[in-house]
């Protein structure tokens, strides 16, 4: 029957090998590296349960969203930076859908965010409409409907690849409308939207051959001097982990790492305090 691959998932960092088993990485100490390789089976956009309690009114969520709990990170392919979320250097402000419509141009990538939920990415194709992967289907909706009450922002600059011409980005997206279930080549809305804009096969399921090496690194930034690194065989595995961090937030990731490294909250907070001072 040939080799069978077991599908693996994880819920906490207790199950995740990390780059430095002894603690947080520092800028001048890389430490031993242990790779991470997972095969994720589900589209995370379908997991709409919250981690912060019962459902809230959509308009209330939109007004209250604050990016202070977002985890900054850098993604490397070998030694090249291919993605960076830096809240200080980039405009990561969020806007209502009405304001977004005044800012968007065809070919833009838009990210909708809400506390405790996975970010949802769409491709703006003009005429107030977007194309996006949602619930295992590529759909064409009005931007206001696709937002589901969340605030959004244009995120063309997060990935460092060269973008395709806007008309090609729109064409890539529109041609996939109606694709669903087993016909899909993308694990989530972010992979689909990024593929439309950059055209790179690495965003697709099976777009890379797993050869035992871990060329991708996700560097999570907790302060100017404190970071932690995970390594991955494929780009889409890394994106799934990054999106999980986006969902649970910086504080929860810090807590998971503290538990994983057998450290107390007081020790972690003391480290942060010392690094800031």
Automatic annotation (TrEMBL):
Transmembrane segments: none annotated. PROSITE patterns: LRAT. Residues 1-30, 44-64 are annotated as: Disordered. Residues 110-205 form the LRAT domain. Gene3D superfamilies: endopeptidase domain like (from Nostoc punctiforme). Residues 50-64 have a biased composition (Basic and acidic residues). It holds the Pfam family LRAT. PANTHER family: PROTEIN FAM84B-RELATED, PROTEIN LRATD2. This is LRAT domain-containing protein. It comes from Oncorhynchus tshawytscha. The lineage of its organism: Eukaryota, Metazoa, Chordata, Craniata, Vertebrata. The gene is LRATD2.
